[in-house]
Write a sequence for this structure.
């Protein structure tokens, strides 16, 4: 063997020794098949300010036409009665906004008011007192009812307003860095009709983005129950449970899916309740005006009985059910895939379940779709820091529904802010993670113990959803 050949063999041996076992068996991360299609066939690929406002591309026939009527009803301001058009009047007499889109701007997410006295921002206060009504729901405040209305028609005295003050909460990372969170405190001001109950429970609620609602309605009940583990039988620290709520239309108890505490069973009921509570527009499901105790609402002009017809409620329901889900961005980027793995390893997907399949639905476009909403639609104890101390049917004062994460990375583009959680206290995804407690405490601690590079990868993965 020549001297040159011997040197070559020595070099090859050194190279082989320097290769670790991990190098030999390393398998690069890869995206799943169709991972970009968060909403299945309802997915749309758009990253503009209108990203939440598109019709599901597989919507056809009359449903496609009714979508645009529903869009008009959702976005147009309602006016006080009587008006030249009887289809869009009946606002108030007490209300929080003049249009659905006032809170869900561009079908997106609301925020806390930026200054005292600002209205139509997308945050409202639910009011209740301890105990339940005959259907298991909350007892309203004796004077102001179940929701504080901070606007009114011209001849009515507005119920009240509210202000928010913030205190700091410091979180220290294991790597020595820290971050300051803000904790809100609410103060109801200028009560016009007397004091609220001494044992009043106040629950702030931010308007959520509208995409993918119909797909969540189409997920079968058996699928949702398969995620539940109320008694934590597998000892993983996660004990999600369904909420069971009053279905006004069927006059029976149904599984809850919508709202921050899953306190609404259907999109139709959620919309009808919002028309009644937020706009003061009566419907077949909610035929009574919201008036403070002692105020005769019959003295104010109304827009008919009901003020929005079943036909128009149906069109707004269809519109709200079939808004396209934005597709993923950079889903196959190596750094994003590493963030996804860290997200999974931190047990975030114990509640934010990535993938499921819808069942049958009256809207064919929503049926049998493989979707990636990152939610289980169940209630989880999120700890005392996030507690509103307000039970809601089966939900305790510490429990919240897991919010879907699809579209979260486009909220800043669509709405110009990144306020998250039920009251908008979190100004970023990072802050939202750090407010987690209760069942999510271990996941939060895992995040705190990561390096800044790893934390950034998780945040960028969530932004890609």
């Amino acid at each position: 063997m020549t001297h040159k050949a011997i040197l070559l063999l020595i070099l090859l041996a050194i190279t082989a020794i320097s290769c670790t076992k991990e190098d030999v068996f390393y398998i690069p991360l890869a995206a799943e098949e169709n991972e970009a299609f968060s909403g299945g066939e309802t997915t749309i690929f758009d990253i503009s300010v209108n990203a939440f406002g598109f019709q599901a591309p597989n919507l056809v026939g009359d449903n496609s036409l009714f979508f645009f009527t529903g869009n008009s009803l959702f976005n147009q301001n309602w006016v006080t009665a009587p008006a030249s058009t009887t289809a869009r009047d009946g606002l108030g007499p007490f209300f929080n906004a003049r249009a659905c889109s006032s809170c869900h701007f561009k079908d997106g997410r609301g925020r806390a008011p930026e200054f005292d006295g600002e209205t139509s921002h997308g945050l409202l206060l639910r009011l209740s007192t301890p105990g339940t009504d005959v259907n298991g729901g909350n007892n309203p405040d004796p004077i102001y009812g179940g929701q504080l209305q901070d606007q009114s028609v011209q001849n009515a005295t507005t119920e009240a307003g509210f202000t928010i003050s913030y205190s700091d909460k410091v979180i220290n990372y294991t790597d020595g860095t820290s971050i300051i969170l803000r904790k809100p405190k609410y103060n109801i001001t200028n009560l016009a009709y007397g004091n609220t109950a001494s044992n009043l429970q106040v629950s702030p609620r931010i308007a959520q983005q509208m995409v993918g609602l119909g797909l969540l309605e189409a997920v079968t009940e058996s699928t949702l129950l398969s995620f539940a583990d109320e008694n934590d039988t597998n000892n993983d620290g996660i004990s999600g449970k369904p909420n069971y709520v009053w279905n006004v239309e069927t006059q029976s108890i149904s599984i809850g899916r919508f709202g921050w505490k899953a306190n609404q069973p259907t999109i139709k009921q959620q919309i009808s309740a919002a028309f009644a509570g937020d706009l003061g527009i009566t419907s077949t499901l909610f035929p009574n005006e919201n008036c403070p105790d002692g105020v005769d609402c019959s003295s104010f002009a109304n827009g008919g009985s009901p003020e929005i017809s079943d036909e128009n409620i149906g069109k707004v329901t269809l519109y709200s059910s079939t808004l396209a889900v934005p597709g993923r961005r950079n889903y196959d980027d190596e750094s994003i895939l590493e963030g996804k793995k860290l997200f999974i390893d931190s047990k975030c997907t114990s509640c934010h379940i990535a993938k499921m399949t819808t069942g049958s639905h009256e809207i064919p476009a929503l049926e049998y779709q493989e979707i990636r909403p990152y939610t289980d639609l169940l209630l989880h104890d999120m700890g005392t820091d996030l507690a509103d101390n307000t039970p809601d049917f089966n939900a305790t004062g510490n429990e919240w529904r897991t919010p879907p994460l699809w579209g979260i990375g486009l909220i800043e583009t669509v709405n110009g802010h990144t306020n998250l959680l039920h009251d908008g206290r979190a100004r970023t995804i990072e802050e939202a993670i750090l407010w987690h407690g209760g069942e999510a405490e271990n996941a939060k601690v895992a995040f705190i113990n990561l390096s800044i590079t790893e934390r950034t990868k998780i945040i960028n993965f969530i932004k890609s959803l």
